[in-house]
Amino acid sequence: MNRNIFLCFLLVICNSALGQKLKEPLPECPSLEKGDTYTQSEFLSRLAHECRYDRLLLPTYQTGEVVFVHASAYVYFIQPAEAHDLNFKLHFLLQLRWTDRRLAYALYSPERTKIIGESDLRSRVWIPHLYMSNEQSSSLMGTDSKDVLISIAPDGEVLFSRRMQAVLYCWMNLQKFPFDVQKCSMNLESWKYNASILRLMWEKDNPVRLSSELHLTEYSLLDFWTNESVVRGDIVNMRLGGAGNYSALKFTFKLGREVGYYLMDYFIPSMMIVAMSWVTFWLQADASAPRITLGTSTMLSFITLASSQAKTLPKVSYIKASEIWFLGCIGFIFSALVEFAFVNTIWRRKKVVNLKKVNSKYILKSTLTPRLARKELQKELQSSPQLSNSRSCSSLNQDTSSDPAGPAYNNYLTVHSFPSALNLPTITTQSYDELVHRSGGRHNSSEGSDEPPKHHTWTQMTPQEIATWIDKRSRVLFPLLFIFFNIIYWTFVYCL
């Protein structure tokens, strides 16, 4: 019983308190009449009062129309970072323009041409929520009040300006490094509102302007352009604020790497190092100490030069143009070392080499296969009919140093018949060349050919002469091959 009385008493007290509250007058919206008599802050506080303006709602929430936000940028600093960082720094002024009819004040303050504010005005009005999708880091250039500026026109047009610096990712393709051309971009996307209620658009006239004092060091600005697109929001990957299509803007600039630095610090020094490796061709083949020292020092110098340059590049799976140059130069330096080892081995031989002709073909054959001349001579002996029919009595063994054809090149004793009056046979010697000449002559005459008989002339070269001969040819061959390699390489990097 007492409990019911207490509940009834509490209900009476609550009803009386609620009745008093309902009788209190609601807060009235401040009047906008005679707006010119108010200061800018006073008039703005009345214009954006919560009774008539909600900054969390779109300017067109009542009509359901699309809000068009026009963007423009003024770029006054671009600093591409090192290639291994894959990013660049950008200093720019971003301007956004849209129309908010709720802020139109032409009827209330006709003499007021513009309302200008900073962070205090930003906290009162609606602003589109944008972000840079390829951003690594960004910040205002200074304080909020210094680097944010908002102006409101009498018809409700809002101009939002913000000075920013940002480090943006740039996924570079370094296959033609350091002759590469990179395309880097700044991507602006809507985060909160999808494309059905908010559209981002570049200004029609000069959407992106570059400062006249903009200068780049490692790169040169070749071109730049803008485009508008729509990206698909993905809730699973948290791509944007929600599912749907979102409006996006992109500003792309094309950068060409300046090769002057790499020519002076990498390519020209590497050419000089490769040319230094050719000095060994002017040294005697048995000068092992200076030739080995010069070859190894040029090899190590070039590897040090190439490794210092490669430290500035990321570790990628594909081969770069700079690595092709590195492999080509290493190949020439290594070939010079191999050439020295080859001629030094020949120089230390003791036997004289027999040659049919003094040219590259026979010198290399006799050098690589020293017994090749002997084998060829034996084949000719077996294939000659005149020699097979002649009766050999004995062979005259001669020293290799005096016989141009070596131990296998023999003089054959043949027996000739003379008139019966003498009754004594006469023994004469005939060289192999004469026999081959006669047999060839008979064979040709039997066929009725007028061609002169073939005559094999043999000569000798000492191993030292062969080594010197190879060094002299290398003095010309290596520079010509390096020039040919340069023609192919520079054609590839500039024409392909």
UniProtKB/TrEMBL annotation:
Keywords: Cell membrane, Glycoprotein, Ion channel, Ion transport, Ligand-gated ion channel, Membrane, Signal, Transmembrane, Transmembrane helix, Transport. Residues 267-490 form the Neurotransmitter-gated ion-channel transmembrane domain. It is a multi-pass membrane protein. It holds the Pfam family Neur_chan_memb. PROSITE patterns: NEUROTR_ION_CHANNEL. CDD domains: LGIC_ECD_anion (cd18987), LGIC_TM_anion (cd19049). Belongs to the ligand-gated ion channel (TC 1.A.9) family. GO terms for molecular function: chloride channel activity; extracellular ligand-gated monoatomic ion channel activity; ligand-gated monoatomic anion channel activity; transmembrane signaling receptor activity. It catalyses: chloride(in) = chloride(out). PANTHER family: NEUROTRANSMITTER GATED ION CHANNEL. Residues 42-258 form the Neurotransmitter-gated ion-channel ligand-binding domain. Residues 380-402 have a biased composition (Polar residues). It is found in: Cell membrane. The chain crosses the membrane at residues 266-285, 292-312, 324-347, 476-494. Residues 1-19 form the signal peptide. GO terms for cellular component: plasma membrane. InterPro entries: GABAA/Glycine_rcpt, Neur_chan_lig-bd, Neur_chan_lig-bd_sf, Neur_channel, Neuro-gated_channel_TM_sf, Neuro_actylchol_rec, Neurotrans-gated_channel_TM, Neurotransmitter_ion_chnl_CS. Its main location: membrane. This is pH-sensitive chloride channel 2. Coiled coil: none annotated. Residues 379-402, 437-458 are annotated as: Disordered.
